[in-house]
Amino acid sequence: MREGTLGAEMSRGTASFSFELFPPKTDDGEQALWETVRALQSLEPTFVSVTYGAGGSTQDRTVRITGEIARETSLRPVGHLTCVGAGRAELRDVIAQYAAEGVHTILALRGDPPQGPGTPWTAHPDGLDNATDLVDLIASMGDFSIGVAAFPEGHPESPSRQHDAQVLRMKQDAGADFAITQLFFRVEDYLRLRDLAAAAGCTMPIVPGIMPVTNVAQIERFATMSGAAFPDVLAQRFRAVDGDNDAVAELGVEVATRMCEVLLDAGAPGLHFYTLNRSRSTMAVYAALGLASRVVG
């Protein structure tokens, strides 16, 4: 693994800690985002990632915000990029924009089918078919650190979890140096993916993606969209306090903290939090874990 990449840094033994933000569509939303950035900056995370709307829906704002994080904060930004609705020329242009903004780490994703999850994937006529091709394109354009997605419960279009592990190896061979999983709620799913990937020759760090529950209906919707199982026993605990926002958030921190402890004890290289642009639960889990000094491996 190349020195200086994010993956190489994650492999050195100290648990990484990172969080995902999404670019708001309004100026008021952007102000709220920066309040979250300022709050989370004090945690000194390994990196922050900023999601990317396909087809131009948030593309310009994503590139701009990611560049501003690079220039105006001490945080290391990771810009998302998807294949959806874009030809090769447009993808090259966005990659060049990231580089010009001082963003040198990109999360390469195929993205959901243009017609939404569960529909057939259709590539742009001059576009790319998958994330492996996107990794290859990014790697051809400069000295980028490249991350990819991983799927603890299997990609919805994959014939098997062994196939998913082989795809991770292919992404690594194309130039990826770390992976981040989609959200999940069963530690055993992550451990199975990690072990299958290792058996397939994948050596890059695979970081678990965690979403502390703050809204029961919302997390059930996200779980359905991503194909993640929201276990009945866990769902019952949250439904028992549904309607009491503070109680839901408190239970969400408790559940996420315990899950993270088990993951780190099992050797996970770090944790990536899907924050939904809110810092309170993430900061509470961080405090409970004492992650700043946590050594793994």
Give the distance, in angstroms, between the N- and C-terminal Cα atoms: 17 Å
Largest sheet: 8 strands, parallel, barrel
Order of helices and strands: HEHEHEHEHEHEHEHHHEH
Based on helices, strands and strand pairing, what is the structural class?
alpha/beta
Radius of gyration: 18 Å
Stretches with pLDDT under 50, minimum 5 residues: 292-297
User: Regarding CATH, which class?
Assistant: Alpha Beta
Question: Helix segment count?
Answer: 11
CATH topology: TIM Barrel
Strand content: 5-15%
Number of strands: 8
CATH level-two architecture: Alpha-Beta Barrel
Shape: globular
Mean pLDDT: 90
How many structural domains can be distinguished in the coordinates? Answer: 1
| Neighbour order of strands in the largest sheet | 1-2-3-4-5-6-7-8
Helix content: 40-55%
SSE blueprint and pairings:
Blueprint: H1 6-10, E1 16-21, H2 27-41, E2 47-50, H3 59-72, E3 77-82, H4 88-100, E4 105-109, H5 131-140, E5 145-150, H6 161-174, E6 178-183, H7 187-199, E7 206-210, H8 216-226, H9 232-239, H10 245-265, E8 270-274, H11 280-289
Helix pairs in contact: 3-4, 5-6, 6-7, 10-11
Write a brief caption for the model:
The chain has eleven helices and eight strands. With 297 residues, it is an alpha/beta fold. The longest helix has 21 residues, at 245-265.
Give an overview of the whole structure.
The protein is of the alpha/beta class and 297 residues long. The chain has a single domain (6-212, 269-276), classed as TIM Barrel, CATH 3.20.20.220. Helix content is 45%, strand content 14%. It has helices at 6-10, 27-41, 59-72, 88-100, 131-140, 161-174, 187-199, 216-226, 232-239, 245-265, 280-289; strands at residues 16-21, 47-50, 77-82, 105-109, 145-150, 178-183, 206-210, 270-274. An eight-stranded parallel beta barrel has the order 1-2-3-4-5-6-7-8, surrounded by six helices. The longest helix is centred in the C-terminal third of the chain and has 21 residues, at 245-265. The radius of gyration is 18 Å and the shape is globular. Mean pLDDT is 90; it is low at 292-297.
